[in-house]
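stuck on this:

***
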Amino acid sequence: MNIAIIGGGPGGLYLAALMKQLDPAHEITVWERNAPDDTFGFGVVFSDETLGGIENADTTVARAMARRFARWTDIDIHYRGESHTVGGQGFAAMSREELLRLLQERCRDLGVTLRFSTLAPDTARLCASYDLVVGADGVNSAVRAAHADVFRPSLDRRHSKYMWLGTDRVFEAFQFFIKQTEWGVVQVHGYPYSDTGSTFIVEMHEDVWRRAGFDATEGAGFPPGASDEQAVARVRELFADELGGHQVFANNSKWLNFTTVRNERWHHGNLVLIGDAAHTAHFSIGSGTKLAMEDALALAACLHEHPDTEGALAAYETERRPVVESTQRAAQGSLEWFENIGMYVHQEPTQFCFNLLTRSRRITYDNLRTRDPEFADRVDMAFAAAQGLDGVAPAMFQPYRLGGLELRNRVIVSPMDMYSAVDGVPGDFHLVHLGSKAMGGAGLVMTEMVCVSPEGRITPGCTGLWNDEQRESWRRIVSFVHEHGTARIGLQLGHSGRKGSTRLMWEGMDDPLPEGNWEVVGPSPLPYGPGSAVPRELTRADLDRIAADFVAAARRGAEAGFDLLELHCAHGYLLSSFLSPIANHRTDEYGGPLENRLRFPLEVFDALREAWPAERPLIVRVSATDWVPDGNTEHDAVEIARAFIAHGADAIDVSSGQVTKDERPAFGRSYQTPFADRIRHEVAAATGAAVIAVGAIASYDDVNSLLLAGRADLCAVGRTHLYDPQWTLHAAAEQEYRGPGAEWPVQFRAGGRKPPASRTDAVRPRLSLLRPDPADQAVHQRWTPAREPAPVS
């Protein structure tokens, strides 16, 4: 192949070297606009996984890199005048300048043509002249910009300012300096990359940056390679104690806003993007260099494995995109955590450190316990002490008092619509469904959305509480739950609004009924989506009637014996549609600004507060974001939560979306939990109200991690309980927990231990003559470069 590579960074150079090794007959030219010794930045970090791939692909490059690495396992977190160390992580870093130099040498040795200080020809010319053209020209890619109609990039400019600097203080480990200043929180990400220097990245929210006066040079036009020396001087002063007399160095160092780059496509014809040109991930979880070199390895392999370029590029994108998107999800969580770091500086130091370490949701409590058991013990003890509890149990099995209700543990079975009622009456199916979940160990079991009127149903199979027959059937279920375990049972009340009169889920979710349907209503005559019924706009008399329906249903729920009531103001149902500017276009006192859109949901809540027994909790479920432009955001959710708490809500159950068919959710593991985190720290923690996290929480490790980090007080788990109704009890068995937080029903107690399997049944012999040296398995390893002996005078 005749290959043109635009960009002489690590990704482009590594790709050139790999392709030449696979076939020396390849003719490869790399264009780089900068000189070979023009290097911006200081150190780059690699994971063991990436290093393993480099070693497999090019032992020459791997050996050269290994000789230059700084290696360590510790993370030091400096917070509130204290330093906390967590070990067992595993890092390797090196100078970016040295990495480029060795890759350049490798390319020259292999016969790659390198054209430095030279702009690449137009991509159209290159695509016509070469078999393959690779855009490896970084975050400000000219290749991507020139073909934006094909790649369809999205550039998400973030809210924090950062500056990449270096220091001659050689850190022994990864350093997080969290500095509380008169202007707000400023943090440093630092790590060693050689025996002479460390990377020193300064970051702060843009609001803090402006208050601190760093915007003084905002309009200055710095030439290429020049640094903002005024800002660098202030950084030296601000972090004088942390630097301990050492210097800070600049290298093309200016204030930047991190931009997350995504592209709908990475290739077109014989043109392909790699590295930062295709995607970026925030520096707080690794390096763009790591991703770029992984891209190069995958692209080279696919080109070697496929006989045609189109097939190779399609395979490359298919292989790499899930990996990159997973990394970007983790990076997004990490960068947003640092953007919002000011929310967490009230936390006790051990919890703050745990929160920081688990910010991306890739590292969890179990990960940390494996890496540093002593730190995990400290986290457990700090959490128990904060709850005023004796002894240490897994966080999920610590009790919780919600209003006047004592829960044995912090696991909730989420409301899940079953669409299996007849005329709104729950039957044997619901008894078995909810009864089995209650006997499965959860502290609280929630009903599905129980509708307040026949017209308030989603489907003909939805349950209700508009008559006494329904109440008595619910009473039977509640009694079963109370008589056969320690779980409490909660009632979720709602009205379908514009999402009503549809088929059963498995017959066509959100599809209107073909016949026998009922009138659909809403705040405005706006359908939920294409093909949905157009709702009738509600009048004042309609609102009064619906509020009365909620009150009547709540009273029946109290008579049936429910322990808790949740008002459903989420997922695009009636009260949710009043809250959302997407569904509510009213021009009266119930539409317009958020204060008005809150009016009817709060009227209903206040009426329920009067009707519902005061000693039983009343909580609210909200959609924290509509996942569409111009819809509600997490900032609106904070104000919505604040309003309900001010009116007496005991907890906010934080979900998201389902307000419109046009939504674009960012799905992923625990993807909704950052919204709960924000509401808890900005509103609930100061008021004593609880926050419930939901959304793809699928493991007990995630539950423990969320609770220990202080992101929620309780966790609601849905589909996982459909997979395993005894999920909570099984989680206790997996963690070898026995106690009041997870009591097995007496009939099931013989199954309270994990059954033996082939792995656990086998007793392994001793096969080593000498025991391993504990020093070789140390949790804490520091970077301690060799020093030349001092001359003898």
Q: What stands out?
A: The chain has 28 helices and 29 strands. Residues 788-793 have pLDDT under 50 and may be disordered.
